[in-house]
Design brief:
Layout: H1 3-27, H2 31-45, H3 49-109, H4 113-132, E1 135-138, E2 152-158, E3 168-173, E4 175-178, E5 181-184, E6 187-192
Helix pairs in contact: 3-4
Length: 193
């Protein structure tokens, strides 16, 4: 494009603008009013003090809610940590409890009642302490239905009676729960169907 074309276009634009202004002046619209409207529009774009205050309140509430969620999350994580720490300890103590039970069974065979009383006191104290910390023994009886989610089948033997087919015949090792979580499944013998 040449210089002449730009000049002609510019001249046409200027002429159009001048005619628009002359028409508006003829209608009684002041050029200064037009500029005032532009200033008002620019003021509307800037937020007012109330809007700024509301935005800051909103930001504060969001930050406060986020902090509350953080506190809840860390508290929950801390509780889970304590549960896991006690789970490891409880799991380590379970074989000792099994040994106590076997020892008590052998002492009951002897005729020394004082030794039996002393061992029962120690055993009861240990069990009570662990129960207070959330450990619970899972009750498994002969004739209960076998549930693979709860029980750990170590072997199958021919069922002595028809009603024991597919059911628990004997519990070889006790199972324990810590709260609602099973930390050791009971080991059972089931009857063959």
């Amino acid at each position: 494009m040449s210089k002449d074309q730009y000049t002609k276009e510019d001249e046409i634009k200027d002429a159009l603008e001048n005619t628009e202004l002359e028409q508006k002046e003829g209608e009684g619209v002041d050029i200064q009013d037009k500029e005032g409207v532009k200033e008002e529009e620019s003021k509307k774009e800037e937020p007012s003090n109330e809007e700024l205050l509301q935005a800051e309140k909103d930001k504060y509430l969001r930050l406060f809610a986020e902090f509350e969620n953080y506190k809840k999350r860390t508290t929950k994580e801390r509780i889970e940590l304590f549960k896991t720490a006690s789970q490891e300890l409880m799991t380590a103590l379970l074989p000792i409890m099994d040994d106590f039970d076997r020892g008590l069974a052998e002492i009951k065979k002897s005729e020394d009642s004082e030794l039996l009383k002393g061992m029962e006191l120690i055993n009861n104290k240990l069990k009570n302490t662990l129960t207070q910390k959330g450990l619970a023994e899972m009750e498994v009886k002969a004739g209960d239905d076998f549930d693979s989610e709860i029980h750990d089948a170590i072997t199958q033997i021919p069922a002595p009676t028809d009603d024991l087919k597919g059911k628990i015949i004997d519990c070889v090792e006790k199972g324990y729960k810590l709260g609602d979580k099973i930390i050791r499944h009971p080991k059972v013998v089931i009857g063959q169907a």
